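Could you help me review a protein record that somebody else here produced? What it holds is a sequence and that sequence's fold in token form. I need someone to confirm that the token line plausibly describes how this chain folds. Take the sequence as given and treat only the tokens as open to question. This is what I was given:
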Amino acid sequence: MDIFNEKIDLSKITCHSGGAAGSDTVWEEVGEEFGVSTRAYSYRTKYHESKNKVEISEQDYEEGVVQIAKANKTLGRFGINKYMSLLARNWAQVKYSKQVFAVGHIVKAGEKSAKGYKNSSKSDVVDGGTGYAVQMAIDQENGVFVFDQVKDKWFRWSYTSLRFVEVKEVPVITEKDFAGIGTREIQPNGVRAIRAVYEKTFNRQLGT
């Protein structure tokens, strides 16, 4: 169920993302159609092609390292240090947003992802690097929505039941600063899900 307490100025909403191929780029490009500006965060990499690239500060990076370590207490994954420049950068997406929308795949405790990685934690988690941004957002108690491409459904994190619960309707953006992120391996249903969020948000705000 969507809670829409106060209308936001649609001309001032910002998508905080990572500029990566796949979901990040779709959030950015479709958002542009609706006049949404994007801040695509980067950290010391030349492999970043977004025209909206924003290089994060050293402070944000150091904070990110701490927050990744905290998130990994839940995720329980190994060998993450070699990916730290990418993972810690994700902290900026969470830090500067109040709501997170991610495209990916939710893996239940004890189950394996499509790539064969077992979720050894005691919680529902999101597969891949996106899982770190999602977990950091949960740790910050932000609103979190995940479109599961395998189940072809939207879910939200419930702070009551401490798990992802299915939402029957497409969620809407209710904060002027939100994160639009997700897997590089986006599928057609993931693209449709992103567009649906923007369309419903703008239609809702316009009162149609």
Observations:
- The beta strands are 14-17, 37-42, 53-55, 99-104, 106-107, 125-126, 143-148, 153-158, 163-167, 177-182.
- Confidence is low (pLDDT under 50) at residues 1-5.
- Helices lie at 23-33, 58-75, 84-95, 130-139, 188-206.
- The two ends are 18 Å apart (CA to CA).
